[in-house]
Design goal:
It is a single chain. By secondary structure, the protein is α/β, with parallel strands linked by helices. Helices cover about 35% and strands about 20% of the residues. Strands 1, 2, 3, 4, 5, 6, 7, 8, 9 and 10 form a 10-stranded mixed sheet that branches. Strand 9, helix 10 and strand 10 form a beta-alpha-beta unit. The protein is globular and about 60 Å long.
């Protein structure tokens, strides 16, 4: 941890937590965007953080939710496309309590280590980003109050990271996760499958390393739910998803059901992207808050001066 601390640093773009215009109902919002230096990635990664309105004046520690953006998006999507408004609306209506949201830039990594080992984004996320965020912000550094969510590529990433690291995350949700069963052989170079092969080449190789794709695929991970026992899981998808991800999400539901793993899945009216996400994000936020509250009943909330830090909370 000392070594990691020496290797990581955060530089603020725009200084301290910035007050943005008041949300409906009068509650000030606080989003700031910064960057973190990574030894694993040999560079810096941008991220935004959305903290409760009283963060600057409180000594309280908070649960934390990581939100992973979709392909061709970045860390600004949460604030620019509607995530912040949904969060504030639920809080204004008294349906949601206080927690921190962290939105890192994942590029086109699919939030995994690349097949050639050059881009170890998953290692960065688990080994550097999460510990650094627990040090920098007043999070409660326990898996029970650390969730991860995402949309499309980010939905894939949330499922993958949550299933692969249940010691880090207690709750996982996804919307329109980019879930695909096995690729056809030979793989078409045009149409929908050709598009998939093109956008997947950075993390999964060109030509596509299908063995690596299969190994990292949440559909494959779901075959062994004993590896993520105790994980709370929610996911949904539009019934007219324009990329056909509804098929993969329904398959994930069938696999988990057959394996007897308790989860929540909904096939909801809609297509893909933020037009769909703005209709359904409320469900995942409420899902995570439910489990954060369950943890609160177990007396995890402690004064900031007494709270422990680190992934394990030790």
């Amino acid at each position: 941890m000392v070594l990691v601390g020496a290797l990581l640093s955060a530089s603020t773009r725009g200084g301290a937590l910035a007050q943005t215009p008041n949300s409906p109902g009068g509650s000030p919002t606080t989003i700031s965007c910064e960057s973190i230096s990574s030894a694993i990635l040999n560079g810096s990664v941008n991220y935004c953080v959305d903290v409760p309105a009283d963060y600057a004046t409180s000594a309280e520690r908070y649960p934390v939710l990581y939100f992973l953006h979709g392909l061709f998006e970045n860390q600004d999507s949460w604030g620019n496309k509607g995530g912040k408004e949904i969060l504030d609306g639920l809080r204004r209506d008294g349906r949601l309590g206080k927690f921190i949201v962290i939105i890192p830039d994942g590029g086109r990594t699919f939030w995994v280590n690349s097949s050639d080992g050059r881009e170890r984004y998953e290692d960065f996320f688990i080994q550097e980003l999460v510990p650094a965020m627990d040090r920098k912000y007043r999070t409660i550094a326990r898996r029970e109050v650390r969730g991860i969510s995402g949309t499309s590529m980010g939905g894939y990433g949330a499922l993958h990271l949550g299933m692969s690291h249940p010691d880090v995350f207690g709750s996982v949700s996804s919307h329109s996760a980019a879930l695909l069963p096995k690729f056809p052989n030979p793989l078409p170079t045009e149409g929908r499958w050709g598009f998939y092969a093109q956008v997947l080449q950075e993390p999964f190789g060109s030509p596509l390393n299908e063995a690596y794709w299969d190994r990292e695929n949440p559909l494959t991970l779901a075959e062994h739910p004993e590896h993520f026992a105790g994980l709370h899981l929610y996911f949904d998808c539009g019934d007219h998803d324009r990329y056909g991800f509804d098929e993969g999400n329904q398959l994930l539901d069938r696999i988990l059901t057959e394996k007897g793993f308790e989860h929540e899945f909904f096939l909801r009216p809609g297509s893909h992207g933020w037009s769909y996400l703005n209709q359904v994000m409320q469900y995942s936020l409420l899902f995570h808050w439910k489990w954060f509250e369950e943890a609160e009943k177990s007396a995890w909330r402690v004064p900031a001066s007494k709270a422990k830090s680190g992934i394990s909370g030790k």
